[in-house]
Amino acid sequence: MIKAKKYYGQNFLNNKEIVYKIIQAIPKETNNIVEIGPGLGDLTQELLKISFVKAYEIDKELIPLLQKKFQKEIECGKLRLLHQDASEVKGSFDENKYFLIANLPYYIASHLILKALEDENCLGLIVMVQKEMALKFCAKENEKEFSSLGVLSALICKRKILFDVDPKCFNPEPKVVSSVMSLIKEKEFRELCNIEDFKFFLKDCFKFPRKQLLKNLSLHRNKVLEILNSLNIKENARPHEICVDSYLKIYEKLKDEYERK
Ligand code: SAM
Predict the structure, then answer these.
(1) Quick one: which of 55, 195, 197, 208 could link to 258 by a disulfide (CB 3.0–4.6 Å)?
(2) How far apart are CA 9 and CA 87, in angstroms?
(3) Which atom of ligand 1 is nearest to the CA of 88?
(4) What is the extent of the structural domain holding 223?
(5) Which tens digits make up the pLDDT trace of 37-87?
(6) Whether residue 43 is found in the same domain as residue 59
(7) Residues 174, 106 contacting (CB under 8 angstroms)
(8) pLDDT of 1-24, one tens digit each?
């Protein structure tokens, strides 16, 4: 009997209907899936019915259990099971184009999602996260949840919260409601900006989310004031009131200030 480890964010899904709903949401042409955190393998088992799977699992205690459960699939190459911390993967999660499907460990979910969004082999994600996090990734301007995560995902993805998942569907039950969201990539960051510089820029923009953007970017006050006027954005606009296109335009004009910071 495996005891769930809190520090690895282990809340195992024990509801078949939710697993099927996740499978239904996967684009039909998908033939290569990366799963982070297969856990006890319930989702993995269904993923293997539709695609090749590469799974990263950090918990060494789960590895022999998964090796036994999927012995056939591992032998025939349908499943590649890696005992590895997914956050430590250098470069791509896979050498081929893939979809990321996962019930993510919540303690590290935003980091893994951003890593996948920046990974040019990733075609998109269907992931379960804390509802609060899904709202951030799928937020639009003027919504209170709109933050740098929403700007980054909106820049390159079609985004949707698919459904909520009650804590009762897990063992052990988490304290929060979860949501499954889909982020389907339509572009790469490379086509729009230097992503490292742009992330630094957004960090400044949302430094104090409820303050005015002009205050958050006060180091470049005069320049920002000029840019806001040229874009017809009110001077006292707050970071969550500014749309994704405007963020790109403001960045374009301030780009020299954020290069190689
Ligand atoms: N997929 C299973 C399910 O739906 O029941 C388990 C999901 S559980 C929320 C998260 C899983 O991610 C656990 O198996 C945990 O051990 C694993 N995990 C946690 N941190 C990880 C990391 N950094 N890299 C890879 N796996 C990780």
Answers:
(1) 197
(2) 14
(3) 23
(4) 195-258
(5) 999 999 999 999 999 999 999 999 999 999 999 999 999 999 999 999 999
(6) yes
(7) yes
(8) 789 999 999 999 999 999 999 999
